[in-house]
């Protein structure tokens, strides 16, 4: 079962694309949520998703859909 979520806010950080020897790519972004008690949410984009932030800059409004994954440890 996969739960989908969405966060809306302001783009605060756009990390560079990290490429690993295996060819795997990753980019981290930070979004500050709207509302009475804003939160900073860090998200990781993988593979083709890293290109989705091209053309965006900090302070741009953004809405991101994501799935949560985790394990017991």
* Strand-residue proportion: over 45%
Query: Into which percent range does the helicity of residues fall?
Result: under 10%
Distance, first to last CA: 19 Å
Main beta sheet = 5 strands, antiparallel
Low-confidence runs = none
In total, the number of strands is: 5
Number of helices: 0
Overall shape = globular
Q: Please compute the radius of gyration using only Cα atoms.
A: 13 Å
Features:
mainly beta; 73 residues; single chain
Compact summary:
The chain has 73 residues and is mostly beta strands.
What does this structure look like?
By secondary structure, the chain is an all-beta fold. Helices cover 0% and strands 49% of the residues. It has strands at 4-14, 18-19, 25-33, 40-46, 61-67. Strands 1, 2, 3, 4 and 5 form a 5-stranded antiparallel sheet that branches. The chain is globular, with a radius of gyration of 13 Å. The two termini are 19 Å apart. The mean pLDDT is 90.
Topology:
Blueprint lengths: L3 E11 L3 E2 L5 E9 L6 E7 L14 E7 L6
């Amino acid at each position: 079962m996969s739960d989908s979520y969405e966060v809306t806010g302001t783009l605060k950080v756009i990390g560079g694309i990290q490429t690993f020897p295996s060819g795997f790519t990753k980019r981290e972004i930070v979004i500050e949520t709207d509302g009475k008690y804003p939160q900073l949410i860090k998200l990781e984009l993988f593979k083709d998703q890293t290109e989705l932030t091209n053309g965006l800059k900090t302070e741009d409004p953004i809405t991101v859909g994501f799935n949560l994954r985790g394990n017991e440890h």
